[in-house]
Amino acid sequence: MRRNAADKVMHSLYADQAKRLVNYLVRRVYDEEDAKELAQEAFARVMHIERQRPIDEPQHYLLRVAANLAIEHRNRQKRSVVDVVEELPEQEGEFQSVSLDDQIAGQQALAKVAELLRELPPNVQAALILHRRDGFTYDEIALKLGVSKSMVKKYLRKGVSYLQEAMSTLAVQEVVNDE
Description:
Blueprint: H1 2-29, H2 32-52, H3 58-86, H4 100-119, H5 122-133, H6 138-145, H7 149-178
Helix pairs in contact: 1-2, 1-3, 2-3, 3-5, 5-6, 5-7, 6-7
């Protein structure tokens, strides 16, 4: 019986507040996809509590849960991205049999990729580095970043697409400059 009552409360709350909550979260995490993910998590947590016992002010409780999730999200981003980007390997020992010109070109390309990575949103950066460099699975990345597996896939698609487009643009610019 409690479950049906809780579901009705949550359905009404969702209908009234979902869009407003996502907008609230976008202003705090600066990314619509992350905001949607956090809103979903907030509703899930509130529903879990509501099914156990009635919440006096579910709208206010939902907002408090969402605000706490946004704070946790920002703190995770600050820690994970800085740590991951700073751990990029120097790769000096790998260039011994390569000519000096090729070593310089390789280091410049690596520096450019690192620069492009820094232009991406923090979770996209972290997902790319964890997957490509560290070999993490989607599930492991999701756990580390505190997001769903589907969100990790979106981050990776977004990051790879951006890097491919940026590198293609750079390659075209180099060809034009060489002519």
